[in-house]
Write a structure and sequence with these properties.
Elements: H1 2-130
């Protein structure tokens, strides 16, 4: 029995040694896991900060571009309004000029007609003085 007891004690020592090694391995793995979790959290936080910074930068660029396009649009709308106003003024001026021209044409046409009438009257009067009266052919 002492041999059996010695074997049991040896087995117990080996089990205790293996248990101690197992506990040590668990402790090391636990520390490595904690370290990896800490590194993962740090990496995730850093990536999150970088993504937020990139997002904010893109948002600012988009706002800047939007503002530039809004200013450009406003300038083009102003140019269009000015062009429309100029066109309206030109049309109005053309209409006034056309009306004035038409009025001037009417006045000139009336003068031409009066002069033609006067000329016809003069020619008729001149013809009447130059030609002797024709004898009437009624009684023949």
């Amino acid at each position: 029995t002492s041999k059996f007891m010695m074997e049991c004690q040896e087995q117990a020592a080996m089990v205790a040694e293996k248990d101690q090694k197992l506990q040590q391995a668990e402790k090391e793995w636990s520390e490595k896991l904690k370290e990896n979790m800490f590194q993962s959290q740090a990496y995730f936080s850093k990536a999150q900060i970088e993504l937020k910074a990139e997002h904010d930068k893109q948002v600012e660029e988009m706002k800047t571009r939007h503002d530039e396009l809004s200013k450009l649009l406003a300038a083009r709308e102003e140019e269009l309004a000015t062009a429309k106003q100029s066109l309206l003024e030109a049309r109005t001026e053309t209409s006034v000029q056309t009306a004035s021209r038409e009025q001037a044409e009417k006045v000139l046409m009336a003068k031409v007609e009066n002069l033609q009438n006067e000329l016809t009257a003069i020619v008729s009067a001149k013809s009447a003085k130059q030609s002797p009266p024709q004898p009437s052919t009624r009684g023949k």
